[in-house]
Amino acid sequence: MTTFARAAFLASAGQSAEFPPEGAPEIAFLGRSNVGKSSAINALTGRRRLAFASKTPGRTQTVNFYDLGEAGRLVDFPGYGYARVPQSERAKWERLVSSYLLERNTLAGLVVVMDARHPVTPQDERLLDWLAPRPMRCLALLTKADKLSRAERAPALAHTRRAVADVLLFSSVSREGVIEARRRLVQWLLEARPGSRK
C-alpha cells in the first residue's frame, strides 16, 4: 500500500486551464453521481476523508487531483448522469472530460466506477462508446459489492465484462477488491513511467 499511503490533495480545477502542470503518470476516476467514486478513492488510499464523499448527487463540480509523490497522481472527476444538474453544467463536465482525456499526455489509465447493483447504465454506455476509439487501460470497479447477494455477483460481472474486459467487484465497506485494485493501478503507474518497458 506504500504508493497509495502517500496520497495528498494537490489541486481542484473547475476548467482545463486550472489543471496542474503535467508531471507523474495519472489515473483518472469517472463514474455516475453517487456510485461511490470518492469512497473508492478513500479505500484505495487508506484514508477516511481524502476525497469528499457527498450524499447529494451532482454536488462535486471540480476535478480533484491527488498526489502520490513520484509514483503518480489520482484524478477524481465530477459524477455524471444526475438529472437535476442543469444542461450548462453537463456541458461543462463534457468539456472538462474531453480536454483532459484528449490532451493529457500523462494519463496512464482510466477507472470507470459503477454501482454493482446497476452496472453499465445508458450513461455508462455513452461514456464507454466515446472512449472506445481511444486506446487506454480501463478498469471497471463495481462498488457497493457488499450489497449484492451471492447469486447476483456472477451476473453483474458477466454483464459488465461485455462492455469492459477488466472488472473487479469492490466494496469500501468490506474492503473486497481493494488490494487487487491497488496492485492493478500501481502496475499501470509503473508501466507509464518514462523509460519503462510497455
Describe this structure in words.
With 198 residues, this protein is of the alpha/beta class. It has a single domain (2-192), classed as Rossmann fold (3-Layer(aba) Sandwich), CATH 3.40.50. It contains six helices and seven strands; from the N terminus they run H-E-E-H-E-E-H-E-H-E-H-E-H. The protein has helices at residues 2-5, 37-45, 87-103, 122-131, 150-161, 178-192, and strands at residues 8-13, 26-31, 63-67, 73-76, 107-115, 138-143, 167-169. A seven-stranded mixed sheet has the order 1-3-4-2-5-6-7, with helices on both faces. The longest helix has 17 residues, at 87-103. The chain is globular, with a radius of gyration of 16 Å. The two termini are 23 Å apart. 37% of the residues are buried.
Brief digest:
This protein has 198 residues and is α/β, with parallel strands linked by helices. It starts with a helix and ends in a 6-residue tail after the last helix. The model has no long low-confidence stretch (mean pLDDT 88).
Helix-strand layout with pairing:
Layout (H helix, E strand, L loop, with lengths): L1 H4 L2 E6 L12 E6 L5 H9 L17 E5 L5 E4 L10 H17 L3 E9 L6 H10 L6 E6 L6 H12 L5 E3 L8 H15 L6
Parallel strand pairs: 2-4, 2-5, 5-6, 6-7
Antiparallel strand pairs: 1-3, 3-4
